[in-house]
Amino acid sequence: MVYAIVRAGGRQEKVSVGDLVTLDRVTGQAGSTFKLPALLLVDGAKITSAAEELEKISVTAEIVENLRGPKIVIQKFKNKTGYKKRQGHRSELTRVKITGIA
């Protein structure tokens, strides 16, 4: 089993070929491809973590769709002062398909 740990959107994701992963928004249209930097590669019993060897590894991904995350409601309230504040937030996300680890 071949899988890689990649840096994506400020986080690390474990990916293998054919996986669908949701990341922070990536610029590009549906169908375009891009590369993700590998931090670790596991190929069966062989584990690659050296930086000079990982520079040769390319993890390619294809953008499937751009979407938005669930709405998060932030409410603040202070008793007896009349202070109320309500704020909402939705994350901009991109769903990608991993097409190759080489």
TrEMBL record:
User: Which Pfam families does the record match to this protein?
Assistant: Ribosomal_L21p
Entry-linked InterPro entries: bL21-like, bL21-like_sf, Ribosomal_bL21
Alphabetically sorted, this entry's keywords are: Ribonucleoprotein, Ribosomal protein, RNA-binding, rRNA-binding
Keyword Ribonucleoprotein carried by entry: yes
Molecular function per GO: rRNA binding; structural constituent of ribosome
Q: Which SUPFAM superfamilies match?
A: L21p-like
Indicate the transmembrane segments per the record.
none
Where on the tree of life does the source sit, at the highest rank?
Bacteria
Q: Which GO terms describe its biological process?
A: translation
Look up the record and report any one GO term of the cellular component aspect.
Answer: ribosome
Chain's role: This protein binds to 23S rRNA in the presence of protein L20.
Q: How does it assemble?
A: Part of the 50S ribosomal subunit. Contacts protein L20.
Among HAMAP family, the record links this protein to: Ribosomal_bL21
Q: Which family does it belong to?
A: Belongs to the bacterial ribosomal protein bL21 family.
What PANTHER family does its record include?
50S RIBOSOMAL PROTEIN L21, LARGE RIBOSOMAL SUBUNIT PROTEIN BL21M
Instruction: Please give the name of this protein.
Output: Large ribosomal subunit protein bL21
